[in-house]
Amino acid sequence: MNKSTDYAKLIKTCKSETKEYVQVDKKGAVATVTLNDPSRYNSLTPQLCYQLRERLTELCIDDDIRVVILTGRGHAFCAGGNLELIKECKTFIDEGTDGAATVWRWIRNQFGGVARIISQSDTFFIAAINGPAAGVGLSFAFSCDYLIAAEDAELVMAFGKIGLVPEVGTNWFLTRTLGYTKAMELFISGETISATKAREMGLVNKVAPNGALLSEAQSWAEKVTQLPDSVVAIAKTQMRKVVDMTWEQAIVMEEFAEPICFTTQSHRESVEALVNAKNRKSSDSEG
User: Are the C-beta atoms of 35 and 24 separated by less than 8 Å?
Assistant: First the structure.
């Protein structure tokens, strides 16, 4: 028996979709993932969200891919949950075989599934926010490891206006980045935040000219790939965890991680290169 008959049917519908709502472009160790439903502002229809989770899962187990750039096609990054799907949730609850459990499974396995892949995998994720980012789409951006926004991008805090609370990790991100009172202020006001203001608040790392967004994201991806894969993965895991640890817990985790780095070839080669450079400089000075 299926865990959720309605949920299983919804997933079956998504699997049968032949249109490509999520496009992947690989260049070396970097993959660009583009939400491809611009006529609906890349809102998270079941088909788009399902394809996004599938593509990200594939990329995160691809040994050749170290960085994923997530962006949207057209004028929007992602408008959040598709309104037709939100309306359909009421049908699942009122008429479905499993009521709210079907909605819970979708939010947990699809919305939450995407956020977990981004935040918990070893792959480095860059959000290239090309336009408005709202709702769950904004949550996906907040899940990334580096956020770069185009000049005309906007962060839309519209959860309360449609009778919802911040979700998919947004509460966690906002309260740790801004503190409780400022996070609550944004929720109550439903404020739309410009790219420049988002940078000043620390919600994004950088603002790029509109036409240079992807090239700027690619440049940062190259910085990541210049570092050894192992140390980026270990650092990501550590930094994601220490925010909820005591100082003592954090330092113990670091004490275990550092010896692992000592054993890698990349560390030995880097140290040797530095020693050789120092010796050359010393010899030049003596000469």
Answer: no
Enumerate residue ranges in the chain where pLDDT < 70: 1-4, 82-97, 262, 271, 273, 277-287
pLDDT score recorded for residue 1: 44
Query: What's residue 283's pLDDT?
Result: 63
Q: Give how far Cα 153 sits from Cα of 168, 193, 194, Å.
A: 21, 9, 6
Please state the separation of Cα 88 from the chain's center in Å: 26
pLDDT at 242: 86
* CATH placement of domain 5-226: 3.90.226.10
Q: CA-to-CA distance for 50 and 106, rounded, in angstroms?
A: 10
Q: Residue 200's closest CA among 149, 145, 131, 133?
A: 149
Between vectors from CA 204 to CA 212 and to CA 109, what angle results, nearest 5°?
A: 105
pTM of the model as a whole: 0.88
30-35 vs 67-72, strand pairing mode = parallel
* 159 Cβ contact partners less than 8 Å away, ≥ 6 residues apart: 135, 165, 166, 167, 170, 187, 190
